[in-house]
Structures are given as C-alpha cells and as structure tokens.
Write a structure and sequence with these properties.
- By secondary structure, the chain is of the alpha+beta class.
- The protein has 2 domains: 116 residues, no CATH class; 83 residues, no CATH class.
- 37% of the residues lie in helices and 24% in strands.
- A hairpin with a 5-residue loop joins strand 8 and strand 9.
- Helix 2 packs antiparallel against helix 5.
- It is elongated, with a radius of gyration of 24 Å.
Length: 205
C-alpha cells in the first residue's frame, strides 16, 4: 500500500503563492496528488515489467487507487492478489508435451537480471525424479508442476501427488525492501512537487 500525501508546509506555500483561501489551495493539492497517483501507477507497472518476467496486464489488474479529496489530502494505491504461478513468469520450454520432456528438466526464473535455473528438487543431480514438468490439468489449465515426495494422489494412490509451482505475488514485487516502489520512491516524491508547481501555474492563468 502506497500513500501520497503532503505536509502543511506545502499547503502554506500554495496559499502564499496564490494569495487565496485555504479551500482553494486544497483544490490545488488534491489535483496534484491525484495526478501523481495516476502517473505512479504507470511507473509501477513499467518498472515491474522491466525487472520481472511478467506482463503489464498482470500487474495493473492488481492495482486500485483511492483518490484524494479536499477533505482528505491523501491518495492511496493498493496492490492485492495471491501468489503467481511460476509458469506466469519465465519457464523453458513452455510447451505441454508429456512424451518429449527435456532430459535435464525445465528451467525458469522470475527476475530479468538473473539467469534461468533448473527446476529440480535436488539441483546438480542428473536423474532427479522430481524435475518440474509442464502439465495440463483436466480443466485445460497449463502450468509447470512437480511431484510431491511421499504424498499420494487421491484419484490414483499408486502415483505421487502433483503441485503447481508458485512464485511471487504482484504485491510482493511492488513492495518490500527490494521491491519496485523502493526504487521509484524518490522519483515519485519529485513528481509530486512538480505536479504541485504545475497546478499552481494552472490556477494563476
């Protein structure tokens, strides 16, 4: 969750610059904050897709914005959603072909600045029976999965169960110590100040 708000110094500065009543200065700040929030959504989406093997649509659909009002000069951007399947990122090969699976298993990674890694339970082994594989479930959903040691399928107890491999959620990508927002925060703060100046000029016309 990302908050956009201003300090009382900003309000006082606008009142001084415009020589106007407080309710008018609040309108200036409301517009500046909401413009910043809108621009920030675009920046968050662009930055996330440049850092991670994900799509803009995947990121954007998790974002909602609560706009600032003159009574509450705070805008809030929220990202909510469950963890994404690893298959939503980068998996190679991606084709569902159970009769011709790669001998060394599939590879995958989430971040664009990292090399793909082998999707096996015991990295470094050549015959790992728990190599990940691309699967198509009965409902037609295709993803990458792995056998679960010691757990049996309810429909066929002679076979080990299968689990879909999961990875980062969009909120985790955007937040946290190494998240997208941490890198963008200085730019967004500067953008807010520029939007305040732009709104002041607009009202002075």
């Amino acid at each position: 969750m990302i908050h956009f708000q201003v300090e009382m110094d900003d309000l006082t500065r606008i009142e001084s610059a415009l020589g106007m009543a407080k309710d008018k200065s609040k309108m200036v700040l409301r517009s500046a904050i909401n413009n910043t929030a809108k621009q920030s959504v675009t920046k968050l989406v662009d930055k996330a897709t440049s850092m991670y093997h994900t799509k803009k649509k995947t990121v954007r659909q998790t974002l909602t914005t609560k706009k600032a009002t003159t009574g509450n000069l705070v805008a809030v951007i929220r990202s909510s959603g469950p963890s994404n399947e690893l298959y939503d990122f980068r998996v190679s090969p991606r084709t569902y072909n159970p009769k011709h699976r790669p001998r060394r298993g599939h590879t995958g990674n989430v971040r664009r600045d990292r090399k793909p890694g082998r999707l096996v339970m015991l990295p470094g082994t050549s015959g790992d029976q728990y190599k990940a594989f691309v699967i198509r479930y009965k409902n037609g959903h295709v993803t990458v999965a792995q056998r679960v040691p010691g757990k049996r399928m309810k429909s066929d107890p002679s076979r080990e169960a299968v689990k879909t491999l999961q990875s980062l959620s969009v909120p985790a990508m955007l937040g946290g110590e190494k998240g997208v927002y941490r890198e963008l925060e200085p730019q967004i703060n500067d953008m807010l100040q520029r939007n305040i100046q732009a709104q002041i000029k607009q009202y002075l016309k």
